[in-house]
# Entry
Amino acid sequence: MYKLFDRGIARIAIQWVPSHCGILRNEFADARAKTLLLTGKPTLMRRVPMLYSTAVSFYKGQNRQHYHDQLTVEETDRLVITNTKANLRTEDKLTRTQQATLAQLRSGTCTSMGWYVGYSRSGYDPDHKNDLCRWCGLVPESVLHVFNDCEDLQISLLRAKYHTATNKTFSASTLCSDQLAALEIHASAVRALGVKGGRL
# Structure
């Protein structure tokens, strides 16, 4: 702007445009700003005014990347129903909701599948551990049963579809080896209850 003033251009219109929207000059300015932020000398950085929120956002991003880089690739501490190791680097790319659902399913204490469903709906009652599977109705419901042994037609079809697509057997270990597929099958199984008239 100072260069424009020096050239005698006194009227300058400043217009806000959203970032990352494909406007060539905006993208160029954004790239230059990031380059300066990452490679600029400390003495130079101190002379450049910066919003507090911008600095906080930058360091949060740096911390997030450092956490991701330091993750142990094949280790997790929530493995009640399977001994398979989970890939935490892959899992770190999931949403917070997806991570929470995976953790619940792995621990066997899930609010949408298994014996804990009754606890979460009507409070503590030891008899909830004997609630029959909402899919097959043959044995007490647990995450391990639904993922490994349930003979319900909808669950069997989901297992067959997974086997056809990946040539792998779907089981509780899939919660660690193929997290996205496990989440998708879990969601499909829960949706199937609605089709069958089950309560959720």
